[in-house]
Amino acid sequence: MNNNKANSPFKTDISLAYLFLRLLIGVNFFNHGFTRIGTIPDFVEKTVTNLQGSYFPEPLVRINAFLVPIVELIVGILITLGLFTRAALVVTFGLMVILMLGVTSVQNWGAASSQLIYGIILFILLAGVSFNTFSIDHRFRERQSLRSNSELKIKNYFSV
Questions:
Q1: Dihedral angle over CA of 70, 119, 15, 141, nearest 10
Q2: Is the full-model pTM beyond 0.90?
Q3: How many CA atoms lie less than 13 Å away from 137 in the CB half-sphere?
Q4: pLDDT score, position 3
Q5: Can you tell me the distance from the alpha carbon of 82 to that of 138, in angstroms, rounded to the nearest whole number?
Q6: I need a surface site. Which of 9, 28, 51, 147 has the fewest CB within 10 A?
Q7: How far is it, in rounded angstroms, from Cα 41 to Cα 48?
Q8: Euclidean distance between CA atoms 94 and 154, whole angstroms
């Protein structure tokens, strides 16, 4: 009887659910960035206007607003593909903290609530990254493991 839980249907179901949640958030961030990338100056001006009542200096708001669509686009692509997933999730968490600072500084609690939902999803994805088996990251790890095993076998063969 095979009690290998690593290949159980339960792990496969969680991995599949992880894939769909990763795709959902990845596509969301990708489209946030993609739809704004061509209109960054307008996005910057709108953000500056929205944060006029905040305690952040305008130059800091402008720099961050300029970078937001670029970061959203990049992390969206990486998360969707499952490439450098852990790092992309950490960067996305950082982005969300910055965005949360902005919206709460002007008491936009509706946007803050939405961002908390993003935070929960990002938490689930980061905490469950071991279930990221349908990804480029996993394929790279499998290939690296096969290469390491082959090198070890060759080394052991010649060391006899």
A1: 50
A2: no
A3: 19
A4: 47
A5: 8
A6: 9
A7: 11
A8: 44
CB atoms within 10 A of CB 89: 24
46 or 142: which leads in pLDDT: 46
Give the list of residues 6+ apart from residue 44 with CB closer than 8 angstroms, or none.
62, 65, 66
Question: pLDDT tens across 72-119, in order?
Answer: 999 999 999 999 999 999 999 999 999 999 999 999 999 999 999 999
Residue in the block written with tokens 């946007």: 111
Averaged pLDDT score across all residues of the chain: 91
CB 88 within 8 A of CB 139: no
Q: Which residue type does 148 have?
A: S
Structure tokens at 152: 């070890």
Q: Are 114 and 100 in contact (CB under 8 A)?
A: no
